[in-house]
Amino acid sequence: DMIKNKLADNNLDYSLVILTTSATKFDASVFSTDELKYVKDELKNKKNLVAVNQYDRMVYVCLLENKSKDQSLYMESCRKAGHQVTALLNKTKAKSVLIEARGLRQEALCFTEGLALTNYQFRKYKTSGDNNSLEIIALHSNKLTDKDLLWLNTIVEATCKARDLVNEPVNYLTATQLSNEMVKLGKQAGIKVTVLNKKDIEKTGMGGLLAVNKGSQDPPTFTIMEYKPAGHKNKKPFVLVGKGVVYDTGGLSLKPTANSMDYMKCDMGGAAAVGCAIYALAKAKIPLHVVALIPATDNRPGENASVPGDVIKMYSGKTVEVLNTDAEGRMILADALHHAKKYHPALVMEFSTLTGAASSALGKYACAFLTTADQNQNNALKKSAAHVYERVVEFPMWEEYGELIKSDVADIKNVGGPAAGMITAAKFLEHFIDYPYMHFDIAGTAFVHAEDSYRGKGGTGFGVRLITEFLKNKI
Ligand code: BES
Ligand code: MN
Ligand code: ZN
């Protein structure tokens, strides 16, 4: 674990961070009279981060204040403070940091979460340059338990793993490799993982997944992860579903390269979120029965690719007229959602980089949330979203939007026209469910094009913290 509750006794080379919620009252025993006067003056001058160079080490005093009285905004400001400090630590080539957070719990957890998530780098393919210097984080507070630290370590690790998967290009992360990665995660955490290969998928009759895969040289996979610990508290399982399009060229409805196809390695961000979320739940031994389903393929315009006008018989038996091969996510998700029925789930939560419409409507700041679950569940979900600051904005699933996907020749068509694309996509998926369902369109949040505080640049791991926070509260 990267985050411990103290530094090793022989570790004398570290930077110290003192967290405080008061500009006047904090543990100042490490400062000389002059230093303390300087720190207090700076804090009085509305500085919230004061650095003191003590020659043998750097000390940072970080003042956390709840400016708006909104708990969600306050927690986020603590994460952002952690982000600020990480930059300073790496600039001074610090290898270890001790965070003194006496009397603080939520602030300490958020600050350290922001700090640790900021320290993430994807350097697998770099052959020169340096890694961040920071390697060891110690968080010290009388208000924190071992369980708090285990949870913090677990969600940070799982979020970073999801980022890794999103940042991997398709020339490494094929559908087969994505399923291999899930097998690895399963082994590490004690999750049963079953991978259906192309033959299995054909035998099962997953027509949507096979139709998207037709233009590809690489076979599809369908990964089933099941975590069912002894003494689990839920009778019916929670099922997670994630879109695993390892690369989306658009197929024959080809995307343009710039600012479109060029980042479509991110189109398995939903798969990464659900796979890493179930990994975290198992690692933290949360006593819940949870299943994750990941349909995976690339979407390519190969010789035998699906064409606009094709009619596909889906796993559920329903027929779909494919009018745009770039609306591929819903084709593979429909088969996974149909498969989920056999678990008689309490709730299905599905995460997908599904539509440009969701991204246009909300940008990188929130995902689109569409739901058939009851008010209690939806409220609990929104509370969790505010807690982890992976915000959701609910869009309606009104019947009228369903009329936009009626087909002349099949049961439904896979595109609904220019209006409300994130809603018509959800209405399409609704045809394949018979259980309470939450749909998260993370097209705008899974991948960011410029550094965004502790979310970094590239894959964000969006969804991991939301899913795990929401499900943890079920016990
Ligand atoms: N993978 C894309 C959606 C996407 C857009 C993800 C931006 C991440 C960032 C999806 O498969 C797609 O192409 N959607 C189309 C659907 C349309 C053809 C109905 C879209 O939104 O344009
Ligand atoms: Mn597409
Ligand atoms: Zn896609």
What does the model show?
The structure is a single chain. The protein is built from 14 helices and 20 strands. With 475 residues, it is α/β, with parallel strands linked by helices. The strands form four sheets. Strands 7, 8, 9, 10, 11, 14, 15, 16 and 18 form a nine-stranded mixed β-sheet that branches. Helix 2 (71-91) packs across helix 3, helix 5 runs parallel beside helix 8 (269-283) and helix 9 (329-340) packs parallel to helix 13 (421-430). It is elongated. The two termini are 24 Å apart. The model has no long low-confidence stretch (mean pLDDT 98).
Question: Which features would summarize this protein structure in a list?
Answer:
475 residues; alpha/beta; nine-stranded mixed sheet; six-stranded mixed sheet; 20 strands; elongated; binds ligand BES; binds manganese (II) ion; binds zinc ion
